[in-house]
Amino acid sequence: MRKLLLVFFTAMLCTGILGRQSADTVKTNDGDSLGLIIPDTGSSRIVEINRLLAFAEQFLGTPYRYGGKGPAGFDCSGFVRYCFSQTQGMTLSPSATHYFNHGIKVHPSSARPGDIICFTGSNSRSRSIGHVGIITEVTPTDIYFIHASVNRGICFDAVSSHYYKQRFLQIRRVLE
What we know:
The protein is α+β, with helices and mostly antiparallel strands. The protein has helices at residues 2-14, 45-57, 76-88, 162-167; strands at 23-27, 33-39, 69-70, 73-74, 104-106, 116-119, 131-138, 143-149, 153-158, 168-173. The strands form three sheets. Strands 5-10-6-7-8-9 form a six-stranded antiparallel sheet. Strands 1-2 form a two-stranded antiparallel ribbon. Strands 3-4 form a two-stranded antiparallel sheet. Strand 8 (143-149) and strand 9 (153-158) form a beta hairpin.
């Protein structure tokens, strides 16, 4: 994950989004430094996204629990809701089916870390949201996300994987 964040911030520097006067060291909630320096652009969006992703990453390997809304075990919407609540003070839906109500819909080509990615549930023919995750990295060829997998608990996956490619529905931006 740290490598993903480094790639993200390097890309931001190269595109000119970052790079003004002062800088802050990014820290996790427990105070550990990630070793990344993010220049202060007058906007806290990048710092807030980094805080969200670092917080989410600390739950890697946490088991899946149907209806789980806390660190002892999460379902997908419980995980997304918990991460946004704890780092952003936002209250999101406890049910994946209601995520179309949050934020704005963005095209996959405009996706960025911190956006919420929505999929159908196990039925790939359904058109309603049944699974959600948080985008962690966007490359020219793929979108990576962290989520609560029924079989693997909190883990990373890619939209290009056969399972998720068939079930992709939309991306929602809740952090501006």
